[in-house]
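for the writeup, i need someone to sanity check this before i put it in the appendix. the sequnce is what the collaborator sent (i think, or maybe the updated version? ugh). structure was predicted straight from it, no edits. if anything looks off just tell me and ill rerun, i have time this weekend
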Amino acid sequence: MKQDWQALVIDDDSQVSSFVADVLREDGWTVSEAESAELAFEMLRERQWKIVFCDVMMGGKDGYAALPHFTENQPAARFVLMTGHGSAAGALDATAIGAYDYLVKPFSVDDILKLAQSVRQQHRLRSKKPTSKIIESSEGYTSDIPLIGCSPNFVKCLKMVGRVAPTNLPVLITGESGTGKELVAQAIHQRSRRVGGAFVAVNCGAIPVELIESELFGHAKGSFSGADRERVGLWEEASGGTILLDEITETSLMFQVKLLRALQQGEIRRVGSNRTLKVDVRVIAATNRDIEYEVRQGRFRQDLMYRLNAVTIDIPLLRERREDIPLLADYFARRVRLSPDSPVAFSPDALAMLEKYDWSGNIRELENAVLHAASMSDDIIYPEHLPARVRDFTEDLSAETELPPTDETDKTDWLSLAKMEERYVARVLAHTGGNKQAAARLLHIDRKTLARILKRGETDS
């Protein structure tokens, strides 16, 4: 029997609605259009749609409010939200409450076709098992976590956060220091079924190796010198909620065995006790290291890695999402102001410096730089208000990329490409304080290539 591919487009902008509808019709879909969510609700009994494209901002009910109604009445439909004011936080909210995807206007024909064809394939492969329903409504929902940005790779990252949040799967968050791993973990918890429980963050790297088991699992009275009473560990405190194990790769192999048991069996044993305790906790782990490399080096258990990373979310570096720097800078600058009536703005030159800088400390370093600048300025932040490292980096970069004179009579000023490479590498290495690993990361080369360039420079000199 021929499959009937029904699609619905809801948008009060007739141009957008017609554009989406025409693309879908060309792809073989039977398309209905509605100019409001209320009108679409009246059409619910007419047919079963397989995909629904809905605008976020409309005169009546918005797309977030319409989503639960469609999920209740047509759970098999895939719901796509469309918006002209997109952000990564919006993508997170949309996918967390059950949206199939989130499109930011203006989107292309390929964007629509990609989603439509994906939904068609899913329907062809879908079994007869009932589809689970959404457990919460988005009405009145506002994000209270400053996950700011609109860059494509950050939006993609937060879409993953939204999809995994309602599940109970363990999650591994990777990313350099300062990228916001704990904020992402909090976002997962706040959009999960465990939001009523505790969120407990543990920095494994800050706890001495000999104390981490006691800190996490607790201890019995008299289990060691100074244990004058029974102590409940952080794992139990997180029962019914979520525990974040930050810097998980800093733990010892001995402790990793016990952590693996807690994950596999859902039970722990306090230090010095023979009693086993069942604890219901969702585990999110985070690291700024390459965990697979740590496994190959024998510093991290492979079985624990597989247990932790049912879903892996890699947070992009700030220099990989430079279009988000003005938004983040504005947010941090406003935070330092005591009154909303005291606005702050960036001069074009200052903003350009922020966008060019490499931010080896990521968002945390940007926050530090902006708070410094905002406290030094009045209403406008100029280059002289920025930290010296930001100004110097931009000036050094301009000096290194400045072309030599083109006067044919003055050929002594021309440098070889290899020499320019050596000088630029030296500048970056100076910026990282001699940290070769950080320098290689900034240059997007491996350590061997960096070593070769440095060795060549020593030979030339």
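The two ends are 78 Å apart (CA to CA). The chain has four domains: 6-125, 167-314, 319-386, 411-460.
thx in advance!!
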